[in-house]
Amino acid sequence: MSIKDKTAIAGIGLTEYSTGTDLTEWALASLCIKNAAEDAGITVKDIDGLVKDIDDGWDCSYVQKTLGIDNLLYSSESHWGTSSMLNAISAVASGTANNVVYYRSRKGATSDKRSPSDYRVAKETMDDSISILRIDFYEPFGLVNPVGCAAMIIQRYMNEYNIKPEQMGSVVTGITEYGAKNPLALYTDKAVTMDEYMNSEMVADPIREIECAKGVDAGIAILITRAEMAKDMKQTPAIIMSAAQGAAMNGEFFTGYNQEKMTALPEMVSMGDELYRIAGITAKDVNVAQLDDRFTPMVPMQVEALGFCGAGEGAAFCEARSLPINTAGGSLGEGFMDSNRIVEAVRQVRGTSTSQVDNAEIILYAAGAGGPADGLIIRK
After folding, report:
1. Topology annotation, domain 7-110+216-230
2. Helix and strand totals (H; E) in the chain
3. CATH says 147-209+237-380 is which class?
4. I need a surface site. Which of 2, 168, 353, 373 has the fewest CB within 10 A?
5. Taking the CB of residue 238, how many other CB atoms lie within 10 A of it?
């Protein structure tokens, strides 16, 4: 069964983006779901499915009770963002539930007050799911955190294709130009200049502090319903053309150094190929991209992996502004939540973005650069 065009994003809900909220993740989850229902023009009692990321937020049963949802027909949790979205999309497409909300609630700023500079201090673990691997094989040799691990891949990429620092800087200047127009962007009140980029602190060569997305306290909810039902709701529906995920045999989380070509992001390649296959389109049909900018030097690698340009051409592609990327400022501007870029993709479809792209008919979202990848394509 193909999921193409059978479901739509009918509502989006946000809480305030903060660097120090007093609200619990439970409260953030409940608020953003309530806001998503209001955005779609339905009540919380119309919601009959809840899906979350396994690593954050409160369990669906607690959120159900807080919101007063009478009958929860479907609930699940999964790793890797859009993998959870896939659960929600499949539940709606199969008729298991009618209005399923995918939500994230995180206190990424409050629970982690470190700046990228502080990453130099070794931590026993940075991710519980792969802590044994890190402790045994990476931390003894100095790779104590994601930024250091990602730097190995990025350094190889820059050396392999003779990428200049200024070309990487153009990714930051481009994304922050969009972020400066977005009143929700916590960390980007003005565009970063090339001089500011070149003079910014180096955290793990070649990654600079200015290239690392910071944590944020926030809740984000995305309400998915059947495409025909969404047409009768409050907002312009964002039709889901496809959703997919990708993993590689030798892939790891920023440490897939044993892959045949680690700078090619094979997980992203597989995921992108499946996205295009389901949607029945090619990269040339995409008008806007919302890409993983947890570490912005990985954006050029993603545009290559997703077929927007050839191998080694990603930095020049970004420098030339050949495609609008992260039009709300991405995680670099709004804070690292990932799903905020799905929200911006929906805004582009609705025509309500603070950096609205003309003729934004088809928008691609991707996450998981440097590890298991996931994404979706939506359209008007």
Report:
1. Peroxisomal Thiolase; Chain A, domain 1 (3.40.47)
2. 13, 11
3. alpha beta
4. 2
5. 27
